[in-house]
User: Fold this.
Amino acid sequence: MADSFSMRRQPSWWVMVVIIGVCAPLQLRSLVEGNLNRTSAGVAFALVVLQSLALGLIAYWVGKPARKQQWQRAQTHRQVRALAALAFAWGFTVVPVVAASANAGYYSTLHRLGLDSFAASIAAPVDEDPLRLAGVLGVLALVAAVGQVTPLDGLRYGFVVGAGFEIAENAAYVIDSSSAANGGAGFAAELHLAAIRTGLGFGLHAFWTAIAAAALAYCWSRLQRGQRANWWVLAIAFAIPLLLHALWDTPALSIRPDAKMPLFAALYLSTIGLFLLVAVLAKRTTFRDEPNSSGQVAR
Amino acid sequence: MGKWISAVAILGIVGAVLLAPQVFAALAPHPQLGRVGIFERVVFETSDSQNPLKVGLIAPAGWNRLDTDGDGKLVVANRAARLEVSLHGDVDNVEALLRSTLPSGAQLLPTEDLLLDTPFDARVVEYDLSAGDSPALSISLCPAEQRLDRLRSCLLVEAAYLPGSGAPEDEKAAADAKKALSRMLASVELVSGER
Assistant:
């Protein structure tokens, strides 16, 4: 275990911090440039706090080692908090800003091709999912600098990156709804929107990112031990959430308000089931590979 | 060296995400603008009628959009036909609605039931005032459940097939237009505004 953890020695740390530094003001500007009034700011802030707490609790459960006392952890609590903050900042600032720019480009071309109805389901997964995984990659590089990367690291930090993005996206929806361009929704409508964004598909971005990130960390951990990476695991774990994301954004087949509910329910339950399966596998793999008291890795 | 790989990969992913839409835009074909998109839904609403209704339909993909939404109408055309769709609130006489847009030469033609697999009372008048060269249809779609004390909102679809040259491509376009009309009618759905 490294006796000091200097993230600043790592190029990944600098790259992430610089990109976050560029994107943070842009994200702030995009959040406040509309007709941000006290009401919408209050609702958005309450939403951010509530969702941060809820997602934070899940992230804590996700990352908590079941056999803490037996696990010689390479990261201290302080390091975990610092890395989680970095992961959250990436998800909250970089992903929405870069994805918004990329989405605008895709939407313009997809409109030209007559694919407006499918623009969200094509563009959003294609740019948001790799961006979130890029944040996980950076954080895992910092973990690797002090010791062994584990699938649990991927699950934890992936979840936090996804949570950061989801909270930013939901806050933006609430603030956008209050803008004059959208007719100034008003307090009740903003509250309603906040409730919908919390109740419908809550945590999906976090779950999707955690699934792919656990697979990335799994491959990385194998490389660190001199084994074959098994990249196919990452390919599958990246492709399935991407597909679920695309399906979530597809247009409804009917104008009935509840037309998409069965699909939403199926996608949400699939996501939760897949996430729990990956969480169990990640914890099992992590503890199976942890060094025992004699320094041997169990096989 | 290894520690640089992830940093370069992060930059590569962010750069690729930003560049990919530009590359996609450069490589994608440039079809004519103003065409109806794939699975493009058009929604009409009557809010001021006694029986508020929301009607949705999937417009025929690839057709030229001549007019829409601004005046509550959808008007599209391809090389073989022209379709005009409009929603009418508070209809007390479907027959009168159906005949309201017919030319005088077709006013005496009888209306017929149109069998559709949708929850509508569908009636049609088919006429051709140019010796079989350009048939036209006027179709009304009204909610099937009728309450005597309420007026209905109805969808009026006018389809006019343009005179063809007899060339194979015109024949094909006419056949495609008929299929497109059938698909559009099959896609019509309604949601009552009543609670």
